Amino acid sequence: MVPNDVQTFSYPSVDASVSDARKAVRKVVSGWGLTSDLAETAELLTSELVTNVILHAQDSATCRVICELSAKSVTVTVIDHGRGIPKMRSSSDTATSGRGLFLVDALAQDWGTRSVLRGKATYFVLDLPEPAPQTDDIATRETDERSTGHNTGLAHSTNYRGLRPVPSGLRPWRRTPRARYHCTTYDARR
């Protein structure tokens, strides 16, 4: 993850652009190493905003999608040169359209519109998940092994404090693509 990274894409205002914008945003957010839930939400909300451009900004030939990563959030902005400001509108329970901004309002931490030169920018903000607190699991496990006599397979320390530095590339826990945690055992002795 590189804070303050910005990726920009331009698309013609045609139906195929919705799919292209979705794929691009998902690739960018995933490429930043963020969670798949965040990437899916960004993808869905981008789809809604680009669809609004195609349906309601007929005088805009193109739209631009900008993905911005900050230290605390991801912001996706869709810029078009059409007239009018997007507004949430009421729709019946049986309507097949008209719920895009309701989704944006429900899933994003913030969203809105602002005027830009010859058009408008509609954006949404998704907060990044809080990082897990850093703990020294290996040192704790090595100490626990000695006190309980249980061997977890981790390397034992040889220095006077009972701790052995473990190279940063070795982690006792890894996250799999399905978002489940698995315990793996590493022997840190060299």
Describe this structure in words.
With 190 residues, the chain is an alpha+beta fold. The chain contains four helices and seven strands, in the order βααββαββαββ. The strands form two sheets. A five-stranded antiparallel beta sheet has the order 1-2-3-5-4. Strand 6 and strand 7 form a beta hairpin. Helix 1 packs antiparallel against helix 2 and helix 2 packs antiparallel against helix 3. The chain is globular.
Lay out the secondary structure.
Blueprint lengths: L4 E8 L3 H16 L4 H21 L5 E8 L3 E8 L19 H8 L2 E7 L2 E9 L9 H12 L24 E3 L5 E3 L7
Antiparallel strand pairs: 1-2, 2-3, 3-5, 4-5, 6-7
Helix pairs in contact: 1-2, 2-3
Give short descriptive properties of this protein.
alpha+beta; two-stranded antiparallel ribbon; 7 strands; 30% helix
